[in-house]
Amino acid sequence: MSIMVPSKTPALITPGQQALESALHQLNQAAEQLGLDDGLRTMLATPRRSLTVSVPVRREDGRMDVVQGFRVQHNVSRGPAKGGIRFHPSTDIHEVTALAMWMTWKCALVGIPYGGAKGGVAVDPTVLTTRELERLTRRYVNEILPLIGPEKDIPAPDVGTDEQTMAWIMDTYSVNAGYSVPGVVTGKPMTLGGSLGRAGATSRGVQIAALAALGRSPEGVTVAVQGFGKVGALAAQYLSDAGAKVVAVSDVTGAVHSARGLDVADLRAWVAETGGVTGYRHGDTLGHDELFELDVDVLVPAALEGVITEANAPRIRARLIVEGANGPTTPEADEILAANGTTIVPDILANAGGVIVSYLEWVQNMQAFSWSSNEVEVKLRDLMEGAFGEVKSLAAERGLTLRQAAHVIGVGRVAEAHQMRGLYP
Ligand code: NAD
User: Fold this and answer.
1) With a 6 A CB cut-off, is 83 part of the ligand 1 pocket?
2) For residues 3 and 59, which has the higher predicted lDDT (pLDDT)?
3) Domain topology for 201-350
4) Angle formed by the axes of helices 38-45 and 15-34, to 10°?
5) Is the CB of 301 within 6 Å of ligand 1?
6) Domains 47-180 and 201-350 equal at CATH topology level
7) Do 423 and 356 meet the contact criterion of CB atoms below 8 Å apart?
8) Closest residue by CA, ligand 1 atom 14
9) Dihedral through CA 306, CA 162, CA 110, CA 298, nearest 10?
10) pLDDT of 243 strictly over 60
11) 225: which strand partners?
12) Distance of alpha carbon 391 from its chain centroid, rounded?
């Protein structure tokens, strides 16, 4: 028996189902390489726990809205579950399951003792007031309370959530526990036990991965970044700081381009002031899709899943894609790009900097201790560069793409943990 893949009905498939199909396809390929038996394959394809909850929210005008929330623990064989919480209108149980599965392989790949999880609420946070957001967050957390905890499942920020969200989660959990539990979430504000270096960790990891994959000086290397949020904006900043020329960026409001290179710090200030990249004066307007087709050296997708598809992959000219986002490339696009000689540093490696420093934050919380930013940065760099080296060697040894090699390592470690633990009872 092979891993069950949801049936393909292209007209009806949601972006979440598409993401889960991609994740299962990648798992299947790794399982083949590893020669895993059917029982273990099914175990790895199936989330350990999935919870769907209804979240009632009192709006400012007194109305009550009810939205759906999810928390999926894909695998906990190597340690507590770990994964972000996403607030986005189109999130669903399939997307959250796919994201949880990628977290499992990512943690195993970079060698941190966690399983994979993810959470989501199907809501557009940009239309809620701060007080509505706080009520929504606290109620959602209350609904998933039986699952989370510093030794069970530790949330973090993802799309549409931030350190304020994490502060509310930490407070809600702590009030229920009767004492402060900083280790229940990561990506917290510094004042509540956050770690130095966490805010920029995912982007720092993207920069480290990009420079390792380039294998030459980044001076003058041209870069386009899709998504200018927590990950994309700082990835653009760090790549620019390293000497690369960021020529285009986009966010949900639009895309801007400058062949001379954008002043990323100035653009970040513009976005902080206006809420989006659109209307930025020192660049030309670009169509959303045009960004992918620019003649650049490096493309960094840092928004959502499924944006590089068989439709646009043949027109992508970047020689290197570094996946800041989770699941931006479909398996069909992967094949086209591999055939065209494009190198892709896959999500589970390229964006692992976030969970690495989340792990460091949690370790500091659990021992009530704090490290300097230099200590955090050195540990992050070690883990990122170590994982990159392992993936690159395996890919060369077995003739695999970096994504296939990364999955063989990640899935292989989780499979080994299952085999060593055995099946209870
Ligand atoms: P965010 O909400 O801070 O930013 C998302 C950005 O994407 C925003 O700028 C938004 O405007 C933009 N966007 C949305 N739709 C777009 C579109 N169609 N075209 C262009 N831009 C669009 O989220 P984030 O935390 O930066 O996460 C981005 C990606 O990185 C997600 O895939 C997430 O799972 C992944 N990731 C995040 C972290 C983390 O630490 N935050 C860690 C690992 C991976």
Assistant:
1) no
2) 59
3) Rossmann fold (3.40.50)
4) 150
5) no
6) yes
7) no
8) 252
9) 50
10) yes
11) 249, 300
12) 18
Is there a contact between 327 and 22 (Cβ–Cβ < 8 Å)?
yes
Cis amide prior to 47 (ω within 30 degrees): no
| End-to-end alpha carbon distance in the chain | 23
Check: CB of residue 416 under 8 Å from CB of residue 41. Answer: no
The one-character DSSP state at 259 is T
Is 245 a known active-site residue? no
Strands 320-322 and 284-286 come out as unpaired
By the 8 A CB rule, do 227 and 357 touch?
no
Residue 354, pLDDT above cutoff 80: yes
Mind listing the pLDDT tens digit for each residue in 357-369?
A: 999 999 999 999 9
Residue 115 Cβ inside 6 Å of ligand 1? The answer reads: no
Residue 10 confidence (pLDDT): 52
- Decide if pLDDT at 6 tops 80: no
Reply yes or no on whether the pLDDT at 389 is more than 60. yes
With 0-12 / 13-18 / 19 or more C-beta atoms within 10 angstroms meaning exposed / middle / buried, residue 50 is middle
Of 18, 202, 225, best ligand 1 pocket probe by most atoms within 8 Å of the beta carbon: 202
Query: What pLDDT sits at residue 2?
Result: 44
Q: Evaluate whether 342 touches 253 at the Cβ level (below 8 Å).
A: no
pLDDT, mean over the chain:
96
Residue 318 has pLDDT above 70, yes or no: yes
Structural domain spans, the chain: 47-180, 201-350
Q: Give kind and range of the element (H or E) at residue 81.
A: strand 81-87
- For residue range 404-414, list pLDDT tens digits in order: 999 999 999 99
pLDDT at residue number 1: 40
Classified by CATH at the fold level, domain 47-180 comes out as Rossmann fold (3.40.50)
pLDDT value at 41 more than 80 = yes
